[in-house]
Amino acid sequence: MARVVVDVMPKAEILDPQGKAVTGALQRLGFAGLAVRQGKRFEIEVDGEVTDERLGQIHDAAEKLLANTVIEDFAVRVEETA
Amino acid sequence: MARVVVDVMPKAEILDPQGKAVTGALQRLGFAGLAVRQGKRFEIEVDGEVTDERLGQIHDAAEKLLANTVIEDFAVRVEETA
């Protein structure tokens, strides 16, 4: 079982109201000087080995389903499993 | 400007309906053999240097605000910025 992680974040030029809300809440709680952007993290357990073909598929899946590429960037990476 | 990343994922023993929905949708789109769990990713830009004290604060903030520790695990890590 291998694990692939897909990180999806709002593009830099896109407003991020969730992140803004979190930043504001942190300030009110006394945590100053932190600017937060909020995105999504998908942990994907892959049956069998993670070949280049499999990674390509996951890249396609991320583009089609996991991220809205109009407003979000995504990154696919293989994570070492202990 | 340094960047700290907080990953928040549903605990292993907790059902993850979002992840289940994504897994099902991937299967219907023809991507078989993938099991997805969905969590959140927070990218935090820190003013100044990331000292151990600062990291401790962010850890507290993650515990109080970013994660619901009853049902979610979180991990804090410093990310290299190019």
Plain-language structure description:
Chain A has a single domain, classed as 2-Layer Sandwich (Mth169, Chain: A). In chain A, 33% of the residues lie in helices and 37% in strands. Chain A has a 3-stranded antiparallel sheet with strand order 2-1-3. With 82 residues, the first copy, chain A, is of the alpha+beta class. At the A-B interface, strand 1, helix 1, strand 2 and helix 2 of A face strand 1, helix 1, strand 2 and helix 2 of B. Strand 2 of chain A pairs antiparallel with strand 2 of chain B, so a sheet runs across the interface.
**String of helices and strands of chain A:** EHEHE
Biggest interface between protein chains, with counts per chain?
A-B, 32 and 32 residues
- Kindly report the CATH topology of chain A: Mth169, Chain: A
Provide the structure class of chain A: alpha+beta
Number of strands of chain A: 3
Distance between the termini of chain A: 11 Å
The CATH class name of chain A reads Alpha Beta
Q: Major sheet of chain A: order of its strands?
A: 2-1-3
How much of the sequence lies in strands of chain A comes to 35-45%
Query: CATH superfamily of chain A, please?
Result: Phosphoribosylformylglycinamidine synthase subunit PurS
- The total domain count of chain A is 1
Organism (chains A, B): Naumannella cuiyingiana
EC number (chains A, B): 6.3.5.3
Family (chains A, B): Belongs to the PurS family.
GO molecular function (chains A, B): ATP binding; phosphoribosylformylglycinamidine synthase activity
